[in-house]
Amino acid sequence: MDTDLTEPEHARAEPVDEGSPFGPVGVVGAGAMGAGIAQVAATAGHAVTLVDAAPGAAATAVERIGAALSRLVGKGRLSSDDAAAVLARITPAETLDELPNCGLVIEAVPEDLELKRRIFGELADRQPSTTVLATNTSSIDIDDISAEVADPERVLGLHFFNPPPVMELVEVVHGERTADAYVEHALALMKAWGKTPVRCSSTPGFIVNRVARPFYGEAQRIVEAGIADAATVDWVLREKGGFPMGPLELTDFIGQDVNLAVGTSVWEQTGRDERYAPTAFQQELVEAGRLGRKSGRGVYAYAADGSLDASAQDGGPDLELAGRLVGGPVATDPLARTVAMLVNEAVDLVARGEASADDVDTAMRLGTRYPRGPIEWGREVGFDVVARQLAELDEAYPGGRYRPSPALTDGSLT
Ligand SMILES: NC(=O)c1ccc[n+]([C@@H]2O[C@H](COP(=O)([O-])OP(=O)(O)OC[C@H]3O[C@@H](n4cnc5c(N)ncnc54)[C@H](O)[C@@H]3O)[C@@H](O)[C@H]2O)c1
């Protein structure tokens, strides 16, 4: 993808009302996500304290933010005065004690439950009882993180996507114990920051990382079963499906290890639901160190500059094969099979009351750049058709992975 990863879409967002309950913002963890979130909050007008426990890390992150803002100035997207004002609003710090009383603190430390739980306990002790405590976790249950907070109703997830200044989507995640009023506040604040928030419950993978699972899994299974090679599957999803990248090239881009870890986490958290079971295909890639672009080889081979190494590929897509598969039986049609599973996953999420149909579609369009939201896609294909396709897949591959959601045929989503 050619996205310029440094350009905030709302660099000129108006400062948030000083009188709002969200005054100063604290960001804990100044890595890839924390630094980006700090930039977004400061651009929206908040005074931001950016804390990182590693000596000098927060100060270095502020320098990185300064460089990103300068690039925007260079492109005429931000005036140098505005860039200087944004940067001046961010203060680096090394301990939680240096945080002022904040309206909101967003935690973005590594994905480790014990670490996050401890930080939330400490934040709850140090910050006023009205401070909203948010986590940027991608996979941990919000209620697990708030376990040591005396008033867990103020703890919620603000799941930004990478890179935060560019990606418009934020999943606002509520735990069992999060109070609605705080969720409403968070939704309003994210809009004020120029983001498009969606609301979901603390279900494994939230919306995007849950609904997207079959996009990867079906492609891997199709290749594993010898139905088609990777280049042909990717070509079909890209050229016939309108997806910006094929699933196999996308997992190479993300990192096979990272993608496998997210999938495995959803699988574990759903009690090892067959739908999310990792494939031997991907496990073998990871075991062989074929992690994707970053290691020079994944599903495909890459040159030193990260571009596809054409001389090392087995050949391009087999267009004759693609022509035979697309529109044929669903079990061997990479596009129909993937779309049916995406629709099923989305419909199930909505039927369980974990997110609204509109929010699922918005999340998938903005978070993954799918050409259509899966619910909208299901309406187009026909939920009854999707149910029949899944029944066919279930017969071809029994075991529960392809069980159709009852909501496909109960009329609740038409
Ligand atoms: N990277 C992504 O694409 C992405 C996207 C969405 C969400 N997330 C989530 O965001 C969180 C952060 O991810 P990241 O990629 O920015 O990680 P990262 O490793 O780049 O940064 C984490 C930072 O936290 C600091 N840190 C560690 N312990 C700390 C402590 N006790 N107090 C303060 N700072 C501490 C580290 O020094 C490091 O700078 C994770 O929960 C991750 O799952 C990541």
UniProtKB/TrEMBL annotation:
Keywords: Oxidoreductase. Coiled coil: none annotated. Residues 1-23 are annotated as: Disordered. It comes from the Bacteria. Residues 25-201 form the 3-hydroxyacyl-CoA dehydrogenase NAD binding domain. Pathway: Lipid metabolism; butanoate metabolism. Residues 205-302, 336-408 form the 3-hydroxyacyl-CoA dehydrogenase C-terminal domain. Belongs to the 3-hydroxyacyl-CoA dehydrogenase family. PANTHER family: 3-HYDROXYACYL-COA DEHYDROGENASE FAMILY PROTEIN, 3-HYDROXYBUTYRYL-COA DEHYDROGENASE. This is 3-hydroxybutyryl-CoA dehydrogenase.
